[in-house]
Design a protein that fits this description.
- The protein is of the alpha/beta class and 506 residues long.
- It has three domains: 72 residues, Urease, subunit C, domain 1; 285 residues, TIM Barrel (Alpha-Beta Barrel); 136 residues, Diaminopimelate Epimerase, Chain A, domain 1.
- It is 31% helix and 19% strand.
- The strands form three sheets. Strands 2-9-10-11-12-13-14-15 form an eight-stranded parallel β-sheet. It has a six-stranded mixed β-sheet with strand order 3-4-5-6-8-7. A four-stranded antiparallel β-sheet has the order 1-16-17-18.
- Helix 7 packs across helix 8 and helix 13 packs across helix 15.
- The relative contact order is 0.14.
């Protein structure tokens, strides 16, 4: 290695021996979809992932409340109503009165914060619940008498807001009222995020960020983080200010590659837009949001692609995937090339007739979403539609190009556990879900390395161990190609980013 780059390789075994004398060395992982600063901030927030009852939820909130300065908001994330358990018969009435029919919490779950404003995000970051103090602040600044376009304000029988806000109600009404962290806190979050990712063997990320954070935080820190960032602009006002693509100087540490739009929400929140109604809520079909709702998606895509940007669309429902493909087809008919530069994020459900339409198109998929969403998906979709759920193998066989990521902090950026799910079908609780969609270890490893590098327009720098590429290397304790993933997964020994070693412990 010289200057952080690989200058010579004799053969694979020589690389293994030269690096550490260990079992296996491969390119450091590339997570094609994270929210870097959001993830870094989440590391210091109240953690609600895994809580299984209202009592646990309230206990976590109360403990965090007691550690905060009097003038600070309480921020929490990670709850999933699918995990709730009524801990005793005596709590049944209380729980039924203070959460919606599908288990969503309301403002009373945050009552221990008293007059401190509090906001707690569902694990998918598409739904939040706020307490009465926060709701009062929001009501002073926003119109809560009606739902915003692309969002829902949950209400009680009297029509009053319960504190639960879905999709654009959360992002357009609540988020602007939460105080922005100061520059020192953002810098701390960026460093914490980089360390967390490196401990998972990750050297390069595709990060979804707002231009203001790229300018104020990530650009000044780019050479301190020891992490390659390929950024996608999250600013989504229409018409688009395309000059934001040049808001920071591009180099190998930080480069803006494109823009993002959301087409729909998530399965867990029943906001993913489906072709048919939800099995467990026949009156609901999910929702189109943002440009898809306003009819501007195709125009947005065409304008961005014609300017040479990589255009990223969030599509989880099968109707959302179809909308993305329809917009791409329309863009191509107008003369722009969409095959190489369109990025479909998630592709979590797909109608069989749309899978073949993904030939030569990029899909960024998150196997750990399958891991956690398998049980609720069965409830939401019903058994007859489970063949649309996480079609890894079917997409690959149709000629789609797969890049894997985590969507951290929605789930942990654990590439090895994600590979295990994609290879074996193992999901939360040990169940094997949709084994007919499993892929080989080699395909899964490529999706986290060379494919992800090409997906993020970084294949000239990383994603492979070859001369001239960055010395980004992860050392594993066993060979991921030949091992039995149904029994265990490899462990990370250490990660090198440009030849510099990062710790392998979280």
């Amino acid at each position: 290695m010289d200057g952080g780059k690989i200058v010579g390789i004799d053969d694979a075994s020589a690389v293994d021996q030269e690096i550490d004398g260990g079992e296996f060395a491969c390119p450091a992982f590339i997570d094609s979809h994270v929210h870097l600063l959001l993830g870094g901030r989440a590391l210091s927030q109240a953690h609600l992932a895994g809580v299984s009852s209202r009592e646990e939820f309230e206990s976590v909130i109360r403990a965090k409340h007691e550690t905060l300065p009097n003038d600070a908001w309480l921020e929490a994330s990670g709850w999933d109503q699918g995990n709730w358990q009524v801990s005793s018969q005596s709590n049944t009435t209380t729980n039924a009165r203070n959460m919606s029919s599908d288990g969503m919490p309301d403002q009373t779950w945050l009552a221990s914060c008293g007059n401190r404003p509090a906001i707690a995000w569902r694990m998918d970051q598409h739904v939040c619940v706020v307490n009465s103090a926060a709701l009062n602040i929001i009501a002073q600044r926003q119109d809560l008498s009606r739902d915003p376009v692309g969002g829902t304000i949950a209400r009680d029988a009297a029509g009053n807001p319960t504190g639960l806000l879905l999709e654009q109600a959360a992002w357009k009404l609540a988020v602007p009222c939460v105080p922005e962290p100061n520059s020192a806190a953002l810098r701390q979050a960026a460093h914490a995020a980089a360390r967390h990712l490196q401990a998972h063997g990750i050297a390069t990320v595709g990060s979804m960020e707002y231009s203001r954070d790229l300018i104020s935080t990530l650009s000044p820190l780019r050479h301190e983080l020891n992490l390659r960032i390929r950024a996608t602009i999250l600013d989504r006002e229409w018409p688009v200010d395309w000059s934001l693509g040049q808001c920071v100087t591009a180099d190998d540490a930080l480069r803006i590659i494109g823009f993002k739009s959301f087409i729909d929400g998530t399965l867990g929140s029943r906001t993913a837009r489906m072709l048919e109604p939800y099995c467990d809520a026949p009156e609901q079909q999910g929702m189109f949001v943002e440009l898809a709702e306003s009819g501007k998606l195709s125009e947005w895509m065409r304008e961005g692609l014609s300017r040479g940007w990589s255009m990223s669309v969030h599509a989880i429902g099968d109707a959302a995937l179809r909308a993305a493909l329809d917009a791409a087809d329309a863009a191509e008919k107008s003369g722009v090339r969409a095959r190489e530069s369109l990025r479909i994020e998630h592709g979590q459900t797909a109608h069989a007739s749309d899978i073949s339409r993904c030939k030569d198109r990029w899909l960024s998929m998150q196997p750990l979403h399958k891991y956690f969403d398998a049980a609720p998906a069965l409830t939401r979709l019903g058994l007859p539609r489970m063949d649309r759920f996480f079609c890894f193998k079917q997409f690959h066989q149709a000629g789609a190009r797969l890049a894997f990521g985590s969507d951290w902090p929605i789930v942990e950026p654990d590439c090895l556990q994600a590979m295990q799910t994609a290879i074996t079908g193992a999901t939360f609780g040990g169940a094997i879900t949709r084994a007919q969609s499993n892929i080989s270890a080699e395909i899964a490893l490529q999706a986290f390395t060379c494919n992800a590098a090409e997906y993020l327009r970084a294949s000239d720098t990383c994603g492979a161990l070859k001369v001239g590429h960055a010395a980004d290397i992860v050392s594993l304790d066993r060979d991921p190609i030949t091992m039995d993933w149904s029994q265990h997964k490899p462990n990370i020994r250490f990660t090198c980013v440009a030849g510099m070693t990062a710790p392998a412990t979280l």
